[in-house]
Design a protein that fits this description.
The chain is of the alpha+beta class and about 180 residues long. The protein has four helices and nine strands. Strand 7 and strand 8 form a beta hairpin. It has helices at about 25-30, 30-40, 50-55, 55-80, and strands at about 85, 90-100, 100-110, 120-130, 135-145, 150-155, 165-170, 175-180, 185. The two termini are about 70 Å apart.
Length: about 180
């Protein structure tokens, strides 16, 4: 639509308004950086992402803190297994999975690389089962003995609401807690 032939409305007693715009006058009153930009003298900053991250001391500190946090998370993800630990030089692992409406819990005491000893170590394992609200649902005490060969202590629970299993393992006078999430099948 063409508005060039349309007259503006104004009072009959007032004069017609005139609008004066001069780009040159506006640029003369602008700051130096704006004048340089419109004049073509503005220097382009070709700053990349990495350069902006290490440009000042505070940015470098934040950048290195981010790198440190990244490596801590990766290290914990790769090397920290919540269901495995070493107790009294015995590798111990806890696993739990569900099948039908039954939760199967297994605590494995692996054989050590040392020669088989004639010592019989008493093992006490308290299995505690928790639901999604971290409420204790059930617990059971398992006992056994360890003679340097692979030993398993197993039990089952019939509550399907169990999502987490914690084992309080006591070998001789040493105690540790292992936890495992119930794997759904």
């Amino acid at each position: 639509m063409d508005f060039s032939n349309v007259e503006e409305c104004h009072d009959e007693n007032s004069q017609e308004l005139k609008f004066y715009y001069s780009r040159e006058e506006r640029i003369k009153r602008a700051p130096k950086i704006v004048q340089d930009f419109y004049g073509g003298n503005f220097k382009n900053c070709k700053v990349g992402v990495f350069r902006s991250l290490v440009d000042s001391k505070s940015n470098r500190l934040i950048f290195f803190a981010l790198i440190l946090c990244f490596f801590v998370v990766i290290f914990n993800f790769l090397f920290n297994k919540s269901g495995e630990d070493i107790i009294y030089n015995i590798p111990v692992s806890l696993s739990a999975f569900s099948f039908d409406d039954t939760i199967y819990v297994s605590v494995c005491f692996d054989s050590t690389n040392q020669e088989k000893s004639n010592d019989i170590l008493p093992i006490n394992v308290m299995i505690k089962c928790f639901d999604s609200q971290k409420q204790l649902i059930n617990k059971e005490l398992l006992t056994g003995s360890y003679q340097g060969i692979e030993t398993y202590l197993r039990t089952t629970f019939t509550d399907y609401d169990i999502v987490n299993v914690v084992a309080e393992i006591k070998i001789s006078k040493y105690e540790k807690n292992l936890s495992s999430v119930v794997k759904k099948n």
